[in-house]
Structure formats: structure tokens, C-alpha cells
Amino acid sequence: xxxxxxxxxxxxxxxxxxxxxxxxxxxxxxxxxxxxxxxxxxxxxxxxxxxxxxxxxxxxxxxxxxxxxxxxxxxxxxxxxxxxxxxxxxxxxxxxxxxxxxxxxxxxxxxxxxxxxxxxxxxxxxxx
Length: 128
Hints:
Structural class: alpha+beta
CATH topology: Zincin-like
Distance between the termini: 31 Å
Strand content: 25-35%
Number of strands: 9
Largest sheet: 5 strands, mixed
Order of helices and strands: EEHEEEEHEHEEHH
Number of domains: 1
CATH architecture: 2-Layer Sandwich
Low-confidence stretches: none
Shape: globular
Mean pLDDT: 87
Strand order of the largest sheet: 1-2-3-7-6
């Protein structure tokens, strides 16, 4: 399905499911829609590679999904490992206890987990 610059991504869905199974088993019942956008996104001057959104109850009722993860144009240059790291990062924002949904803000522990798993130079691996 495609809506303008946005389209559903089977590849991101598969990657998301794989990362959930390996690292976020508590999210297996969360209903997450994965999509790409063929335009870049910026937040001020900072490039945004991806984001995670909690859908409103109204949108969830209409779509059947609780969260939306979008990968933007600038993420296309990442390696497979880079996409996995980015997916892990976005999934770390999903707050889900089986009923209640929330967005978890950035924190040091999340970055520590990525560094422990992929090393201090994880961005070099992601961009290689």
C-alpha cells in the first residue's frame, strides 16, 4: 500500500519481527506498522533517519495498529547492520505492557545497550 511518499515495507516488517523476537519479546503482541518515506526528514538542522509514533486510540481503531515506525530517505544508505541498529533503537521507544501503550523517550541506558552490543564506533558499522 502506498500513500504519496509513504508506503508499507515488508522488509522492515520482517526486520522488526526479527528484532522483536531477539531483543524485545515483550513487544510480540504490539501491533506495529512499518513504512518507508522516500523524502528526507529533518528536525531543525538534524537529519532524522527514522521515528516511532504511538497512534491515537481513534487511529488504532481504524487501522488495527498501535505504533508506527517510519524509515526516511536518508536511512537508505545504511548497511543491513545499520538498519538493524536503527530498528533496535526505534523499537526501544515502544512502551507496551500488553494493553497500555506509550513512547519511551531517549535515555542513556538505551544508548549504552547499543554500544555494548555493537561497540563504541557503532555508527561506522551502520554507515559502512
